Structures are given as C-alpha cells and as structure tokens.
C-alpha cells in the first residue's frame, strides 16, 4: 500500500485570563464569551478536495527533500497565509484509506498573526469537551486522544 507522510499543525491557545475565571458573572470578564480552558484549532477541508468536509489539522504532504517541520511551515503559509513556530511533536496517527496509508505526524505550533483561509471551508477553536463536536479525518483520532488529555490537564 502506498504510504503518504503528512504533517499537521496543532495550534494551541491558552485560556483567556479575563474570561470570568471564577464563573461568578462579575468582574472584568463578565458578559464576555467565556474561554476558561485552552483550545486547539480545527480546520474543515474545503469542497472539491479529497476528503472534503472532514476536519483536520492544517498541513499536508511532506515533499521529497523537506524535513517535516519545513513542510509544515510551507503548508501553513500556503493555507493560512501566516507564519508559524513549530514546536514539540505531539503524536502520530496512521490510517489506511482507499487511496493509501496516511502517516500523520502532529506538532504543537504557534500561529503568528490571524489565519486567513485559502483552502479550508472554516476553522473552529475547540476546548477539551468540544473536540469530538466535529467529524475528524480518521487518521487524527489517536492524536485527539492525546490532546484531550493535555487540554484537560492545562
Ligand atoms: N493536512 C492534513 N491532512 C490530513 C489530516 N488527516 C488526514 O487523514 N489527512 C489526509 C488528507 C489528505 O489525503 C492527506 C493530506 O494531503 P493534503 O492536505 O496535501 O491533501 P491534498 O489533497 O490537498 O494534496 P494534493 O494532492 O492536492 O497536493 O492526508 C490532517 O489532520 N491534516
């Protein structure tokens, strides 16, 4: 079976410190959309693409001669028109699709600036309890399990 090496960016943002941390409804964060926990970014594949409609980590195939981190920086530039700081490896997911075996390696990343979508239908920031609210590409599931642990812990 054909093996396809893919890299994915896990954009992570910390809890909003002003979002009413005690849940009292009072103080500086009152009335604002509460974001009490850390979140990660999910992106929905655009129409007309292979696996359209599924949710994924921004990223794509590693091209010959590229390191995984170089590939990730290139893909994020193309897909989100933003620079990225690629951090630690978080996990691998492997899945046999009809078109080949995808080996997906995910890295924690920091986005520099606001994402502007060129290929994706939409993006959403998801907290620990919302991770499964969207339909992820099957290769992503083991990575989400690891992220659920990390988001719940922090
Ligand atoms: N970027 C990305 N792709 C994923 C994830 N999970 C997953 O199964 N995939 C699959 C979807 C695609 O078949 C492949 C990634 O390739 P890609 O994003 O470059 O796909 P593409 O069809 O745009 O590539 P191309 O053939 O047009 O160059 O891996 C994920 O989390 N992120």
UniProtKB/TrEMBL annotation:
Entry keyword set: DNA damage, DNA repair, DNA replication, Hydrolase, Magnesium, Metal-binding, Mutator protein
Pfam families: NUDIX (PF00293)
E.C. code: 3.6.1.55
Keyword Metal-binding on entry: yes
Top-rank EC class of the record's enzyme: hydrolase
Cofactor(s) listed: Mg(2+)
Gene Ontology molecular-function annotations: 8-oxo-7,8-dihydrodeoxyguanosine triphosphate pyrophosphatase activity; 8-oxo-7,8-dihydroguanosine triphosphate pyrophosphatase activity; 8-oxo-dGDP phosphatase activity; 8-oxo-GDP phosphatase activity; metal ion binding
Protein origin, superkingdom: Bacteria
Family annotation (CDD domains): NUDIX_MutT_NudA_like
GO BP field: DNA repair; DNA replication
Nudix hydrolase domain sequence ranges: 21-149
Catalysed reactions, semicolon-separated: 8-oxo-dGTP + H2O = 8-oxo-dGMP + diphosphate + H(+)
Family named by the database record: Belongs to the Nudix hydrolase family.
Protein name: 8-oxo-dGTP diphosphatase
């Amino acid at each position: 079976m054909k093996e396809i090496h893919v890299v994915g960016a896990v954009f992570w943002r910390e809890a909003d410190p002003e979002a009413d941390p005690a849940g009292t409804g009072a103080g500086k964060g009152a009335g604002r959309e509460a974001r009490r926990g850390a979140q990660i970014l999910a992106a929905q594949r655009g129409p007309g693409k292979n696996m359209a409609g599924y949710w994924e980590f921004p990223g794509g195939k590693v091209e010959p001669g590229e390191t995984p981190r170089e590939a990730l920086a290139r893909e994020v530039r193309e897909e989100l028109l933003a620079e990225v700081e690629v951090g630690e490896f978080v996990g691998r997911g492997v899945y046999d699709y009809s078109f080949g075996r995808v080996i997906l390696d995910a890295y924690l990343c920091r986005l520099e600036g606001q994402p502007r979508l060129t290929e994706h239908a939409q993006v959403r920031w998801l907290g620990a309890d919302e991770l499964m609210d969207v339909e992820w590409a099957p290769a992503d599931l083991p990575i989400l399990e690891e992220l659920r642990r990390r988001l719940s812990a922090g």
